[in-house]
Amino acid sequence: MARRFPSLLAAAPALVCAALFAPADLSAQPVTDCFADRVAAFRVGFVSSPPAFNTWQPGILFGPPGAATPTTGSLSVVSLGRGGEIVLEFTDNVIVDGPGPDFIVFENAFFCSTVPVAAGDSWSVFAEPGIIAVSADGVDYRTFPYDVAALASVVSQCSDRTLLARLGGLIGITPSFTGNYTVPDDPLVFDPAAPGGVSGHGGDAFDLAVVGLATARFVRITDPDLGISLAGASEGLDLDGVVAIHARPAPAAGRSDGDADGLADDDERLFYGSNPADPDTDGDGLDDGAEVASCRSPVLQTSEPFFVPAIALEADDAASTVLRWSDLGGGVTYDAVRGDTQALRSSGGRVDLGVVTCLENNSTDLTTRTVPDTTLPATGRAYFYVVRQNPPGSGLGYGFSSAGEPRAAASGDCL
Hints:
Elements: E1 3-6, E2 38-43, E3 78-79, E4 85-89, E5 93-96, E6 103-106, E7 110-111, E8 124-126, E9 130-135, E10 141-143, H1 148-152, E11 158-160, H2 161-164, E12 170-171, E13 204-206, E14 215-216, E15 218-222, E16 238-239, E17 241-244, E18 247-249, H3 265-272, H4 288-293, E19 313-317, E20 321-325, E21 334-340, E22 345-347, E23 350-352, E24 357-363, E25 382-389, E26 407-408
Parallel strand pairs: 1-25, 23-26
Antiparallel strand pairs: 2-4, 3-16, 4-15, 5-14, 5-18, 6-13, 6-17, 7-8, 8-11, 9-10, 9-12, 9-15, 19-20, 21-24, 21-25, 22-23
């Protein structure tokens, strides 16, 4: 039987059959970071110009929040539609209850008015509030409390500071801009040193203790259908992503973890650069696993975000193959190639992919939907697919074998 196979990056030990993936899901990333990893459920609400914006590339939710300014919202979003709902799952890490907020949800709120320069200035925000619930098991969900009357008072596209002060417990309230997305913001505390008084990257932060949970792996976001959006494909709240700021790695079942920090020894050596014999490589009092799972460097004492640029890949194996993958942030483009599994060789310390076919060169989005692969392998043969970030040589390339050997094409690669 002729089959197509996708490859999971970066440390996947094998090529995985496309038929194992539901078209609506992205597989878990093979290394730990602070971002959500999978769409567990998605019900798109009403939009007057379907399909809802960016719903064809869900991987945009599985990376850092997009670039924005205090007066322009990010376009690295998925619109839920009016009354829509999405559940994001963390698979390579678990959000844990730590001191203060534990995760941040980013919508693309921005100032409608002049950006305030002092705490007493008047201002308004293009706010599309959303309701947040969390669960440890995907069954028992706890909704963060909010003022129902205040939410009902959001009747226009721009809400002033007085109303926004009453909307705590909801998302889509705090303006976002390019900054440190691991720093929680309090919309009621003005930071005179930051654009618009917003520290970090903006977004709305949540504390698991408020809903009585010690851990969470599922975050449910619901659009309350206020009917305030601009008509079109982006009606409803526009989700930019969820970032865990207190987290630990998911258990690495069956893999050696000599220092018990939650990171497999091989991954510490290959990806993170941390010491597999020392649970706190940089000596800052936090173990390496907690830092990696919260997008902190395990080898440097810094508050700057850190994550390994690993791509999670999905292939929809129907009449033609369409690839989709996760986001690595702004300014990154991607190459996607196809190869024949019979050409795979381990040689000279690398995995030789053989002669490959470049399917999409320097893709600016997260899918090959505009260039679906209609070619079928010969009977008894199978294709594999891999994706890398550009420029070649940056990031993790086409990934590694279970022995840590980098994958490289013999010929036919994207330029």
